[in-house]
Specification:
The chain has 440 residues and is mainly α. It has helices spanning 3-19, 25-54, 59-64, 70-74, 79-84, 91-110, 119-147, 153-167, 169-178, 184-192, 196-204, 217-246, 249-254, 258-264, 269-298, 300-324, 334-365, 371-391, 393-400, 402-412, 414-423, 432-439. The protein has 22 helices and no strands. α8 (153-167) packs across α17 (334-365). The longest helix has 32 residues, at 334-365.
């Protein structure tokens, strides 16, 4: 009997069983939605500041441009419009395509201006660009919630998040490289053309069919909140909102000043660029994919517990690195660089795991009939506290020092974990797939 062959075949079968959920049309759609969503966001964070710096704009003005991302925190204010009104292609596809066309035109148009001379015009265009990007996110998040079953939420959101992060390589790497040999006008138009795959996707996919859509604007504004309160109760609603605010607070604060931290520990710009940035990006990507696949097996609740614990524990890697440093200038050893790679890889693996579980929880908490409004509200509530707390990171470091600062970050991760007892109890042991099967 050829047991070796049978064992090998069984191993391949188990491996295929793990990766088969990735090889579906819905997961491919999530690749396109994530890439389309991430490109304009990272353009605002990475390419535009570099363009203004090269154009001679004062650093204080460049810093103020960070406020242009405010539409992402307030997108719930106009999200009811996307639930109520349907353009020709449909509520989700239509708004996606409109926002994507606007983004392509706005990104390409920016390069025609000179930062030093046209800063006011650029400011208005950047705010409009952020508004269109946030609007695209509303439509994309709602579409993704409507096409994915509960069993697919974890993996689908993992694929979306990974494509979102990879999209940052276009404005954060490719566009900057092109700027050394091409005009800024050409660079911005080339970058803008990367919106085209999302536009093609919006034209080719089918519009989800969802019942109980709002009949008027008043219902679109009021009904999502009433439905959520009826479904969860006042106490349940407040617990979920508190959880949304607190679950990612610790790890978000820990990475808020990551680059300055590495530099102050004595690492060079090359160390940061080659080691820290790559270790962070690809560890987060691996974490998100692993998280999605694991969630398929164990469910969202257990994933929130396990991945949240990883998030918390890996913060202590920064504590260790801060305790080891700062290293002498010019005296960085191979061991120091390995320590940096290990700490960053572990931290962003936790970030990737925790993020996909968190977004899957948000998606599960929404009603598909009001997905645009509820998803926009929940994500806004989740990011707003982190934005405020992260703004204080510099003062906290000055007051506490790096070691105590990272210990505080670990402490801030605990309240969100404690809320899991109420909002995602471990005893709810069935995975979404198993739950659906038991219902059938």
């Amino acid at each position: 009997m050829n047991t070796t062959g049978q064992g090998s075949e069984g191993g391949r079968s188990r491996l295929y069983g793990w990766i088969a959920p990735l090889l579906t049309r819905k997961m491919l759609i999530c690749v396109f939605t994530g890439f389309s969503s991430g490109l304009p966001f990272f353009l605002l964070l990475q390419l535009i500041p570099a363009w203004m710096e090269k154009g001679g704009v004062d650093i204080k003005i460049i810093g103020l441009f960070a406020l242009a991302t405010f539409p992402f925190n307030w997108k719930f204010l106009w999200s009811p419009l996307l639930d109520r009104y349907a353009p020709p292609l449909g509520r989700r596809r239509g708004w996606m395509l409109i926002a994507q066309v606007m983004l392509l035109v706005l990104i390409g148009t920016l390069g025609a201006f000179t930062p030093a001379d046209d800063i006011s015009t650029i400011m208005y265009l950047v705010v409009l660009l952020a508004f269109c990007a946030a609007t695209q996110d509303i439509a994309i998040d709602a579409y993704r919630r409507e096409i994915l079953s509960d069993a697919e939420l974890g993996l689908g959101n993992a694929v979306h998040v990974n494509a979102y992060r990879v999209a940052g390589l276009v404005p954060g790497s490719l566009s900057l490289i092109l700027a050394d040999s091409l005009s800024w006008n050409a660079v911005f138009w080339i970058t803008a053309l990367f919106m085209a795959p999302g536009m093609i996707m919006a034209l080719l996919v089918t519009e989800p069919v969802v019942g109980n859509t709002p009949r008027n604007l008043k219902e679109a504004c009021v009904q999502p909140f009433l439905e959520f309160i009826r479904r969860q109760g006042w106490q349940g609603m407040l617990l979920i909102l508190a959880f949304l605010c607190l679950y990612k607070l610790g790890d978000s604060l820990a990475t808020a000043l990551a680059t300055p931290f590495y530099l102050r520990m004595g690492f060079s710009m090359t160390d940061v660029g080659l080691i820290a940035k790559n270790a962070g990006l690809w560890s987060a990507v691996v974490g998100a994919i692993l998280g999605g696949l694991i969630m398929q097996r164990i469910g969202i609740n257990k994933a929130l517990w396990l991945f949240g614990a990883v998030q918390l524990v890996t913060i202590f890697g920064f504590v260790w690195l801060a305790w080891l440093g700062p290293f002498e200038e010019g005296g960085i050893t191979l061991g120091n660089r390995i320590a940096l790679a290990v700490v960053v890889s572990a931290e962003y693996l936790g970030v990737g795991l925790g993020t996909v579980a968190f977004i899957a929880f948000i998606a599960r908490a929404t009603n598909p009939a009001y997905a645009a409004t509820q998803f926009a509200l929940f994500t806004s509530l989740a990011t707003a506290p982190r934005t405020v707390v992260n703004a204080s990171a510099g003062w906290l470091v000055e007051a506490l020092g790096w070691v105590s600062f990272f210990l505080l970050c670990a402490l801030l991760a605990i309240p969100g974990m404690l809320l899991l007892f109420k909002v995602a109890p471990w005893k709810d042991s069935l995975s979404p797939a198993a739950r659906e099967e038991s219902v059938r």
